[in-house]
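pasting for the record
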Amino acid sequence: MTTYDDRASLTELTATVERVRGSVEGVIEGKPEVVRLALTVLLAEGHLLIEDVPGVGKTMLAKALARSIDCSVRRIQFTPDLLPSDITGVSIWDQQRRDFEFKPGAIFAQIVIGDEINRASPKTQSALLESMEERQVTFDGQTYELPSPFMVVATQNPVEMEGTYPLPEAQRDRFMARVSVGYPSVEAELQMLDVHGGVSPLEDLQPVAHAHEIVKLVEAVRGVHVSEAVRRYAVEVVAATRAHPDLRLGASPRATLHLLRAAKATAALAGREYALPDDVQALAVAVLAHRLLPTAQAQLGRRTAEQVVREILAGTPVPAAPGRQSGFGGVGRGVPAYPQHPPRSL
């Protein structure tokens, strides 16, 4: 069991994250919210799906995050002919030992970059399911643990359909959050021309944090306090997706767990030892929208999952802060959203 003495302090967490964030933002100009969400997912022990049109820096973001941390990194280029064994590993006959020897695949790394994940067949995509959920690989009846920290950063193009396979619902549900990089502003694009015009900034990017530091920060995030009111609020938001008339598939209990973990990481990044309803609200769209399936009528009406999540947030009563009748932009219940006396320092 982890004790408070084993965890990093919030001051140490903030300092380390600021170094990593500054390193990544030196490559990805004008997208601080995207970089912050990527770091939130990393500290919350989740996996990130970067979904956007070609050329906006999806792979660049994944590489910049990976190179900013001194840990093992593997890149998998997903193609239609990629085999599951290319990801998990394969048994090779050892003539000296006269026995089969397991050769680990590309998944055996601390940060795995899956480029264009929707170009691989569903059979190959399913090779990631056990690794992403249980952080292990089972091969020939033998279980192999994956290193820590472990994070899959996958990219995909939602526009191009030729030669692609939609991610199954089970696969999408294992990604903690989905983010779209989006087009840069005019100023950011001009700066990009100056920075990227000659040499790629990735070539000069040096690690600013070690893997063991990230492990300590993950332990610190686990210790963030979440009150009963905030937990209930998160459950009510997720449960509302299962009963919404515009959705034929709502969010799973795994989504609730991911939402709460991400809220704890957001609180820690803000220097707080407790989570607020604001943290849940800020992450609900990124954590929930990619798991939802709109009905045919909603699709005909051009209703998106993001719009439905925002509608649910607007209609779900928000627990009030201590001493307030209503709080955080919603209808309060008069119950504390966080403790009057926060837990002692991490």
